[in-house]
Amino acid sequence: MDFLSIEFLTALLSIIIIDLVLAGDNAIVIGLAARNVDKANQKKVIIWGTIGAVIIRVIATVLVTYLLQIYGLRLIGGLALIYIAYKLLVEEKKHEISATNQMWAAIRTIIIADTMMGLDNVLAVAGAAHGDMLLVILGLAISVPIMVWGSTIILKLTERYPVVITIGAAVLAYTAAKMVVAEPLIAHWFANGVVKYGFEALIVVLVVAIGMRVKKIKSEKTKQQALHA
Prior knowledge:
Elements: H1 6-22, H2 24-34, H3 39-62, H4 64-67, H5 73-90, H6 99-117, H7 119-129, H8 133-160, H9 163-181, H10 193-228
Membrane topology: Multi-pass membrane protein
Family: Belongs to the TerC family.
Protein name: YjbE family integral membrane protein
């Protein structure tokens, strides 16, 4: 495909739009994971987490043909993402932990979550690129700064409005539920629209309800320990 052809530029624009539209929940993951790291390391977490996630996504896009043949991948990814949504919701800030260990733990969470969530993105980008890897890499390279910028905004919002953490966890839980119902092995279970949307809503409600309950119990326990200290 000619670098300056209308076909190439149209395909590139399509990939950028796909990346940006599907990057919203990824920005949430990055922002929520980085919030528990001390401020001095938050920028590093966002940058390295994003770089790691993009590298994984480029590799996954190259291997997309093989990924499509792996039954159960969406189910595993969805279940992993449900756990990550719950974990991000109940985690408290613990700056007394080793900054280095905490920073790498946050980066690891970002990369794992983005890998699980990136399946739809990978499939969409691979389709729009028509096998042209230059298009894939250019599309990702252009969308990454916007993804980092989005996660920085979310990070600031979580500090000012704690409810954003709950909303973010709900978005991740919804993304996870959509991955589960799209799994070819069990897709027939959700052929009925009521069952499908009911399941997705149930997962969101359970993750948020259980997460908030556990968070409340942890908070009360911390207060009691502080009083007895």
